[in-house]
Every structure is written in C-alpha cells, then in structure tokens.
Predict the 3D structure of the following.
Amino acid sequence: MRCPACQYKDTRVVDSRPVDDNKEIRRRRECEKCSFRFTTFEKMEETPLVVVKKEGAREEFNREKVLRGLIRACEKRPVSVEELEELVIAIEKDLRRLGPSEVRSEDVGEMVMDRLMKLDEVAYVRFASVYRRFCDIDAFIQELKQLQNNQEK
C-alpha cells in the first residue's frame, strides 16, 4: 500500500478492526518513511444489486441516492443523519436477503416509506408526496387520512 503523503511503497498496519457486521476491515496504517498515518478499508466484493426503474431502465443500487432523498425529506425534522444511514443500511440488507440481484424501484420506495413512517410521519408524507407524485390536494389528503387510520389501529 503506497503512502498517500509521500508515495513510499511500504506501510505497516497499526490497527485492524471489523466494521459493518464483519463485512469490512478497517486498517490503520503508518508509512515507514514519513510516519504519515491513514486509514484503509478492505471489503468483501458483493454481487451488484440492480434496481429496475418503472420505464425498464436498470441501474446499480446507490445507497447515497436513497440517503439524499431521505435527508431532503427530513429537513428541519428531529431525525439524525446516523438514523437515516442505519435505515438505508437496513434496506440494502433486506434487499440482498430477498435473493434476486434485481429489484423493482417500487419495492425500494415502499421499503423506504414503511421505515420512514415509523421514524417520522412528517418526513414520510414529504417523501411520499415526491415518490407517489401527488398531482392534486385530494391525493395528498387521502394519504394523510390513511396515515391517520394506521395510527389509530
């Protein structure tokens, strides 16, 4: 491993720790020439998870894209970024557990909304309004009534 500071080719591992449910190893390294310390990650290669869009296009699952949508929905809400990151990790794990390497974008959206509803109802309505493309106030009111009925159960 080359040192990012001086490009010297020999570095030593100072510390190693498993992360992300033992799927990655975080290594703290030190350059033997300039003593610069840096972190590397060793990760098991997984088969790509492909999302099939409504119009048939396929793209690789992008956890950052899901996280950005959640952050937007949770603006000015008492939800931490850490909670949202955990939510995205849980969704990706569930999608991988389902088995097929291709999932429909509708399934991803529904998983996000199910979890977001439990986390913050206002953020859920914001996300749903964009995801379901409410075209008028009636659709918005119907979603709110459904949310209220779910709460009463």
Summary: The chain is about 45% helix and 20% strand. The chain has a mean pLDDT of 88. The first strand starts at residue 11 and ends at 19. Strands lie at 11-19, 24-31, 37-43, 50-52, 58-60, 102-104.
